[in-house]
Design a protein that fits this description.
By secondary structure, this protein is α/β, with parallel strands linked by helices. It has a domain of 206 residues: Rossmann fold, CATH 3.40.50.720. Strand 4, helix 5 and strand 5 form a beta-alpha-beta unit. Helix 1 packs across helix 7.
Length: 295
C-alpha cells in the first residue's frame, strides 16, 4: 500500500516514515516546500502524480501562542489546508487520516473527553484545528480524524527535550501543575496510524469518523517533567535540584490552555483493536532510544 505522508519533517511524520517497513507499507513523505497544503492545485497535482492509496495529514501550524497574533496563517494551514485535501481526496477516491488535537476542548469537563463531546476551543490554534475537522467531515466520507495530545518524540522539538535541556543549566525548573493531560509518544501514534492503514489496505469494514489516541493514563506537566528527570538520572547528570509546581496563573501565556484535556481512547480499541500504551512506559522507551540511538 502506497501512503502519502504530508508533514514528513515533523516528529510524527518522521516516525511514520521510519516505522513503515515494519508494517509492510510504502511511504512517500512530503513537506514544505515540495507540498504546501494551502495551495489547492499543488495538492491536486501531487495526488495525481503519486498514485497514493491513502493520505496521512500530519502537517499543522503548531505555534499555539503565536497563532493568537497571526490567525490567518494558522487557519490557512489547520483549517483550509485539510479542507483542500479532503476535496481532492474525494475527487481521487483516496481515504484520508487527518491529525487533530486535544485543544479543540475547553478543559472544563471532569474526566476524559470522548469523541461525542462537543468541541469548545479556547484559542486560535484550537479553533483552527476544530475548523479543519469540520471541513474534512464535510468534503470526504472516507476519513479518520485522529485527535492526540502532548506529543513528544526523539526527533524534533518537544516538551521532553526542553525539560532535559533546561535541567542541564538550571537548578530550579518551574512547571505548571494544574493542567492535566495524556503524554503521547510519536512512535506509538505512528504505529497506531500504520495499524489503521493496514486495516484499510485489507479492505476491512472501516468505521470512518473521529477517534482519540494518546498515552494511557493522566498526569500534569509538572508530573511529566518529574518523570522525565527521574528516568534520565539513571544515565545522565543534571544541574537541576528542584522541579517546582506552579499554577497556570503563575505562567501566563497569550493562549489559554485547557485545564483538563485527557482523552478517552476506548473507541479506537473497540473499532480497530488499538490500545494505547501507558504513557510512563512509552516515555521510558523514548528516553532509552534518545540515549542509545543516533537518529
Amino acid at each position: 500500500m502506497k501512503i502519502l505522508v504530508i508533514g514528513s519533517k515533523g516528529q510524527l511524520g518522521w516516525e511514520l516514515c521510519r516505522r513503515s517497513a515494519g508494517f509492510d507499507q510504502e511511504i512517500v513523505g512530503l513537506d514544505l516546500p515540495d507540498l504546501d497544503i494551502t495551495k489547492p492545485e499543488q495538492i491536486r497535482n501531487i495526488l495525481n502524480d503519486f498514485g497514493a492509496c491513502l493520505v496521512v495529514n500530519a502537517a499543522a501550524y503548531t505555534a499555539v501562542d503565536k497563532a493568537e497574533a497571526e490567525p490567518d496563517p494558522a487557519f490557512a494551514v489547520n483549517a483550509d489546508g485539510p479542507g483542500h485535501l479532503a476535496v481532492y481526496c474525494a475527487e481521487a477516491n483516496i481515504p484520508l487520516i487527518h491529525l487533530s488535537t486535544d485543544y479543540v476542548f475547553d478543559g472544563e469537563k471532569e474526566g476524559a473527553y470522548t469523541e461525542n463531546d462537543p468541541p469548545a476551543p479556547l484559542g486560535v490554534y484550537g479553533k483552527s484545528k476544530a475548523a479543519g475537522e469540520e471541513k474534512v467531515r464535510k468534503h470526504l466520507r472516507e476519513h479518520i480524524i485522529l485527535r492526540t495530545a502532548w506529543l513528544y518524540g526523539s526527533y524534533g522539538h518537544n516538551f521532553v527535550k526542553t525539560i532535559l535541556r533546561s535541567a542541564k543549566v538550571k537548578e530550579v525548573l518551574r512547571v505548571v501543575a494544574d493542567q492535566h493531560g495524556c503524554p503521547t509518544y510519536a512512535g506509538d501514534l505512528a504505529e497506531a496510524i500504520l495499524a489503521i492503514s493496514n486495516q484499510i489496505q485489507k479492505q476491512k469494514r472501516i468505521s470512518w469518523g473521529t477517534y482519540h489516541y494518546c498515552g494511557a493514563g493522566v498526569t500534569t506537566w509538572h508530573g511529566f517533567a518529574e518523570k522525565i528527570i527521574e528516568l534520565s538520572r539513571k544515565h545522565d547528570s543534571f544541574k537541576v535540584l528542584e522541579i517546582s509546581p506552579i499554577t497556570t496563573e503563575d505562567y501566563p501565556t497569550p493562549t489559554r490552555r485547557p485545564k483538563n484535556s485527557a482523552l478517552d481512547c476506548s473507541l479506537i480499541g473497540k473499532q480497530f483493536g488499538i490500545y494505547p500504551k501507558p504513557w510512563l512506559k512509552s516515555l521510558e522507551n523514548m528516553l532509552e532510544r534518545l540515549r542509545t540511538v543516533d537518529d
